[in-house]
Amino acid sequence: MEQKNYAAFQYSFPQAESRCFRAGKHYAIYYLTRGYGLSEAAGRRQSCGAGDMVIVKPGEQMTMYFRGGECPPELLEVRVLPAYLKELSDDGTDLEQGFSFVPFKTAVIHPESQESMLIRNIATKLTEMDENAYGHCLYEKNLVSILLILSLRACVGVDKVHLSHKRKNILMDDIFVYIREHLTEELTLEGLERQFFVSRYHICREFKRLTGQTPHSYIVKARLDLCRRYIAQGKPIREVYQLGGFGGYNHFFRAFKKEYGVTPKGYYRNLQSGL
């Protein structure tokens, strides 16, 4: 049976469950329109909330864990064959090269609010296409093209993917490693500026380009993920925030609830009950 160039699906998860998604021969984009989930790939878990998306390369797979509840999580999925990326490309924009350049196999991306809204609206339209409508093929092709460009801009800045950026990307890799190794210590833009002899403005710009986040947001989310793992290990909540590098419990409490939609104690209770 001939494979379609692209496919779009919409899912709802009224009950707590996990589901494995396999990209197969496609590039797959998963967009969480409502609720909260955890993405797991290659042994690494990343939290994602409404407005976030996950990009999975061909041959890779990921498992999403959903809580369910009063506001069931909703997920949009768009799959595109590499050959279709070539077809949609032009002399100035190579979509296949853009996706292959993405420096990860599977990762959670946090688009800016305007991009997030556009991606959501376009992905939703693709799940509701009327093949009998006037100009369907052209309309469909243009929607897919815009969705792919927005997705690439959110994760690497498709209009900036050039060889001249290799040095900058290598530098940012070193900064990511440094943050990971010093996550529980004091981390500031001024400190990173002194450590790597590069301006804080460049660091902020490249962080936004590569992760869709500010350095502060990235560090807070990384610390929260570390605290979440400590909670899963059964460590006392009142010790977790110190182990995770937070300066005070109140800051940790507010950040945790904002990120995961539940208090640290509530998260622990959910783990105990299997949610």
List the helices and strands and how they pair.
Layout: E1 6-12, E2 17-22, E3 27-34, E4 36-41, E5 44-49, E6 53-56, E7 61-66, E8 74-80, H1 82-88, H2 95-101, E9 106-109, H3 113-127, H4 136-155, H5 166-181, H6 189-196, H7 200-211, H8 215-232, H9 237-243, H10 249-260, H11 264-273
Antiparallel strand pairs: 1-8, 2-7, 3-6, 3-8, 4-5, 4-7, 6-9
Helix pairs in contact: 3-4, 8-9
Look at the structure and give the mean pLDDT.
83
Biggest sheet strand order reads 1-8-3-6-9
**How far apart are the termini?**
39 Å
Q: Output the radius of gyration.
A: 20 Å
Describe what this molecule looks like in 3D.
This protein is an alpha+beta fold and about 280 residues long. Helices cover about 50% and strands about 20% of the residues. It folds into 2 domains: about 5-160, Regulatory protein AraC (Jelly Rolls), CATH 2.60.120; about 160-275, Homeodomain-like (Arc Repressor Mutant, subunit A), CATH 1.10.10. The chain has helices at about 80-90, 95-100, 115-125, 135-155, 165-180, 190-195, 200-210, 215-230, 235-245, 250-260, 265-275; strands at about 5-10, 15-20, 25-35, 35-40, 45-50, 55, 60-65, 75-80, 105-110. The strands form 2 sheets. It has a 5-stranded antiparallel beta sheet. A 4-stranded antiparallel beta sheet has the order 2-7-4-5, with no helix packed on it. Strand 4 and strand 5 (about 45-50) form a beta hairpin. Helix 3 packs antiparallel against helix 4 and helix 8 (about 215-230) crosses helix 9 (about 235-245). The model is unreliable at about 155-170 (pLDDT under 50).
